[in-house]
Here is the input.
Amino acid sequence: MTRKSLPKYVYRDRGYVRFIRRARGISVMMHEEVGSPEFWDHHNRLLRGKPAPKPVKRNFEALIKSYFQSDAYKKLKPRTKSDYRRYMSHIREIWGDKDPAKIETHHIYELHRANADHWRQANYLVQVMVVLMNHARLIGFTRKEHGNPAKGIPLFKQQSDGWEPWPDDVRDEFEGLATPRARLVYELCLGTGQRIGDILKMEWAHVANDGFDLTQGKTNKPLWIPLTDRLSDYLQGLERREGRLVTDSNGQPVSYRTIAQEMRAIKARMKHADAARYKTHGLRKNATIELYLAGCDDEMVKSVTGHSGVEMLKKYGGQVRQRELASRAQEARNRLAREKNEP
Here is the structure.
């Protein structure tokens, strides 16, 4: 582009070009390549009296804002979105003005260790950092060759076997004191082995052909779960309505918090000294254990509970799973030995 072909108000200046419009007091150096789309965009802005957009400052504040606007975030389940916002808010508080490109593995490792008293939250922080640093690379805040500094950090191991199953004496006392709604939640958790969030979304329309048709909220996995005899008998004693199974007195859906408070109130009236220790999610573990005690293998258990892998089943089945598998293995050996000794 020759000097004569430069656009109006544009002049060459020290290897670049400058937009000068003295009547409006505008003098702006233009670093874009003359004739490029970026150049014309900048030029048109200056003609309208609008300054060029300020470059986005590369810090965690901008990174988190960008992630919340991404398709990846928008596709998450509401519960996961809520969790991400909570943990990313913590990251924003401590590193909001920091450049993601300057964050190294040892920084995230130190953050993880600083939260060691709450191991589950500490591990989740690392998982959220993996997501954020991957997004940082996608939007150009970091380079591919830098890798993801949050990956490979050893997470804290679970300090127990996780949710505790309800012992028989706790179950017996709870059943005697439970309100009709709390008892329904209890029976659905035991009978289907599902998470409380999915229990509260179950509708009467999902009950068909002696089973539940549902899609798990956390995994987005469709399941068909046959009714146990116990759950079938219990549901037959209820009035079948439109909408959800678990509702308030007006037939409207209820929140997890409402049910949690109701369950806690019942356990507070129980005589069992440790009643408060047993959480509603522990009933999912009861269901898992009962399936193993019935002789089900891992795939059969997963087909009911919807667990995604054997590692999680180990946490739920624990020693019961090991004993059941070991008993079946040794019985197979005994059968083989008996067959060999038969005349």
Remarks:
- Strands lie at 10-13, 16-21, 26-30, 207-208, 211-215, 222-226.
- The mean pLDDT is 88.
- Residues 267 and 275 are 6 Å apart (CA to CA).
